[in-house]
Amino acid sequence: MNTQLQRPSQTKSFSTVFLIEMWERFGYYGMQALIVYYMVQRLGFPDERATLVWGAAAALIYVAPAIGGWIGDKILGTKRTMLMGAVVLAAGYALMVVPGQDTWFLFLALGVIVVGNGLFKANAGNLVRKIYEGDDSKIDSAFTIYYMAVNLGAMISQLATPVIKDYVNNLYHNDMGWHAAFAVCAVGLVFGLLNYAMMRASMAHIGSPPDDKPIDWGKFALVAVGGIAVVFASAFILDHREVARAFVYIAGVVVLGIFGYLIAIGRKQDRPGLIAALVLVVQTMFYFIFYQQMSTSLSLFALRNVDPAFNVFGVHLWDWSPAQFQAFNPIWIFILSPILAWAYTAAGKRGKDLSIAAKFALGFAIVALGFFIYGAATHFAGPDGRVSSWLMVWGYAGISLGELLVSGLGLAMVARYVPASMGGFMMGAYFVASGISQYLGGVVASWASISGDQLTDPVASLPIYASLFNKLGFAALLCTVIAIAVLPLMKRLSAAHNEHRAAG
Questions:
Q1: Do 431 and 65 contact (CB within 8 A), yes or no?
Q2: Which residue has better confidence, 430 or 3?
Q3: C-alpha angle with apex 82: 360 to 66, nearest 5 degrees?
């Protein structure tokens, strides 16, 4: 009884995970802000190759947590695996600090990042689930605030790394700015690890069973050897387009097959929740096709067709670096997250909160609005084919609010509907689904690839991008209709899940 009373509060434990997640995302999104530009401007990749390589890398980065979640649950422990992932991620960003134009070296560095993210991501989310396990009144709000950690780190790094890159390049009149920016990403992970070390006492009672046992160095060595193998396998996949495509599609089939198997063999009382989770995971897969445009097609659109000048009521304040436009996404999410968290809690107290499935449907509708704003670029562009940076502000507002309603609640969906014994794996499966869609998002972005004279003629590139964004807007509307159509099914599944859980 006394031990229980002395345990740190949920808030303190959550703060510890929040902060290491923030620093980890600082590193990741700082790298993401520049990676497509790095391949196009520094390494000379054509648009199509750059978007497909990054799409494949993002897929691998999001697929890897399926294995990392299992390692955390069963082998090394959730906390240990998360910390190991942070160390590996720091090493991956450090490799990108090495100057040069060797594409294979870049692919190896991305392979290290794949392994690091795999070990970190599912386990960090699973720790949040464990902190609030059994408390549905707080879990949606907790994961929404947790999503703030992601976006706080992203906001800072996506504003900072492009400035660092430009400053160093201009100062020394070379390309070292790229590598200086990647160095900052590595330093972010070091800060995250130091912060966790100072607050580790708050996590003493949180984790999976292996966390409570001495580390098994034999198993640790096997995980390390397996990680090295995955690094080289990832580099090979990134270097071969057909292999990447086959890998992603096979991963999709495997995830759906495992879901089906778990539903078939699972306890009767677990099946409604698992089926509900599967439906929402499929919807999430569609969402991430839209999400991937921010680092691909929208990023290149910003480079070629957006006026960098930021004016307010005719007064010029500053010029944006094209890569900084990606920071509008975390800025909006940082603003909207606490508002939504408050709204969820207030609605829950009144018994009027929307279901997760209804929030997904609303999210897709708002995403559609965001892309239609970008699709209207041809109507707002000047004679030079460029649009005001304010178009980016409002377009990102729609996409970001939609993201909070879909992706932001994806982890909460897993926590709510999936049995605790499957938590780590299902967190991983959720990220696999996200990864598959991000590769597909890279494929979609490649439909607006620019070449030849279009690279330097905004008037020629503008209608190509606008056409893609309008198509994405209509696709998001179709997703909205589908999400609304399955609401009755989701209501029945959720009711059955809650009934079985109450009875159990």
A1: yes
A2: 430
A3: 50
Q: Name, in order, each residue with C-beta under 8 angstroms of 24's C-beta and a sequence gap of 6 or more.
A: 86, 89, 120, 124, 153, 188, 189, 192
| The pLDDT of residue 116 is above 60 | yes
**Encoded tokens for 16:** 């510890």
CA distance 348 to 354: 9
According to CATH, the superfamily of the domain at 10-201+213-503 is MFS general substrate transporter like domains (1.20.1250.20)
- What would the pLDDT profile of 223-281 be if each residue is shown by its tens digit? 999 999 999 999 999 999 889 888 888 877 877 777 777 777 767 777 777 777 777 77
Instruction: Please tell me the total number of residues recorded for the chain in this structure.
Output: 504
- Per domain, the residue ranges of the chain are 10-201+213-503
CA pair distance 475, 372, nearest whole angstrom: 11
Distance of CA 486 to the CA centre of its chain: 25
Residue in 391, 397, 393 with CA at minimum distance from that of residue 375: 391
C-beta separation of 291 from 115 below 8 A: no
Amino acid identity of 127? Answer: L
Contact 340, 147 (CB under 8 A): no
Cβ contact 299:280 at 8 Å: no
**What are 296-342's pLDDT values in tens digits?**
999 999 998 999 999 888 888 889 999 999 999 888 887 887 788 78
Nearest to 472 by CA among 388, 381, 367, 382: 367
Average pLDDT over residues 338-357: 77
Rounded CA gap, 477 and 475, in Å?
Answer: 5
CA dihedral 12, 15, 17, 22 (to 10 degrees): -170
The candidate with the shortest Cα–Cα distance to 441, out of 409, 476, 391, 416, is 476
Other CB atoms within 10 Å distance of the CB of residue 100: 11
